[in-house]
Amino acid sequence: MGNLSAEKQLDTSKELPTKEKKIGLRWGLAFVFFIVGFIAYMDRANISIVAIPMMEHFGMDKVQFGLLGSLFYLGYCFAQIPGGMLAERFGARNIVTIAITWWSIFTAVTAASVNYVVLCVVRFFFGAGEGPMYPGNAVFNSYWFQRHEKGRAASALLAGSFFGPVLAPGISVAILAWFGWQWVFYIFGILGIVIALVWYFIGRDKPENHPWISESEKSLIIKNRDISSSEKKSAPWKLYLKNIRFWAVGVQYLVVIYMNTFFLTWLPTYLIEARNFSLKEMGFAASFPWLAICLSVLIGGAVSDKILQKTNSRMKARGGMAILGFAFFIAGLYFAAYAVSPWMNVLWLTVALGALGLPIVASWAIANDLGQEFAGSVSGWMNTWGSIGGITSPIICGWFAQEMGWNVTLLINIFPVIFAALLWFFIKPDKPLVQLENK
């Protein structure tokens, strides 16, 4: 390995490959990650759907219930960087299979918890199981996708993740009504085990290892991906930690996931308590914001890649999209707080969460862009900060809602979002964090 320099421009000027005539295997595997993300976020969202009967069963108040979400993200946080490093070393196929199996077991065990203390322990280990999923996907994408496909590649898992809460309210409310809240967790735990087996059967770490891939697609990927060699190397953490841009990537993502977790944890309760929706109406209304973010990450990933192809500027393609998303999120949150009509409130919340999809997909694309062969480590770092946002959001927002009311909670959350938008001017995504030079 040669010298390390942090000031060389990322190479986006290489001639772009010709378009394929048909959908390649890599996009089929991306769809599998869509399903993986769908199951993962269904499992996360289910606890918020059954919050009221679950709080009654265990005698919890809002702060205690919020602690469950924080414990999930605490376990999730601890697994991020190790998950990314393990995926770099042992491959995404094995690590993602283990992760899905792990979290699915603890999803089912959630329903079997005998008291609040046991429930807290279970949610911590559930979070630890989901932790390696996104860094593992980042490693997979770095080997399987061309450099100008990173936005769309990242959007597959993200869109699946956010499609989960679209269907979770309706499905979970139906299961709750027919069988009780415990069966929500049992059923989705079983589904997760099935998906883990499917992924292990059809997934491979690299296109070079897959028996189903065509020679033309394999050559196209290898020629145009960012990975320069298959040699196993360790990420240059000392240089990363001295780089302010590395910290800016993480801190802005803390705010992103803080806000995402607010919606994931408290949206159903908010609609029932603050807007007087019935349980059935909530199940319908709560799906719209998640449908919006699902569509925004799919469209945003494609548009971001297209802008990158046309301009060769990651600041325009990734940073511009993130800042635009933050601006619309702020507007949506502000107007939601002052909306008189419950359904107008849902409309503005839909605008807000939909807009948040743009900085989310931009963040994961930039983690791949900047990390290259160390995408697992860089994305693990970024998602560690995101996990801190996930740890603090349920408790802080739950406390604000309990002590100051829901409208104040919405308005206060505007300020950290402004700060996150400003951090993109420090990220400077057109320069690599480090540049590997091979002599």
From TrEMBL:
GO molecular function: transmembrane transporter activity
Matching InterPro entries: MFS, MFS_dom, MFS_Na/Anion_cotransporter, MFS_trans_sf
A GO CC annotation given for this chain: plasma membrane
SUPFAM superfamilies listed in its UniProt record: MFS general substrate transporter
UniProt domain Major facilitator superfamily (MFS) profile: residue ranges: 29-431
Keywords: Membrane, Transmembrane, Transmembrane helix, Transport
Topology with respect to the bilayer: Multi-pass membrane protein
CDD domains listed in its UniProt record: MFS_ExuT_GudP_like
Protein name per the record: MFS transporter
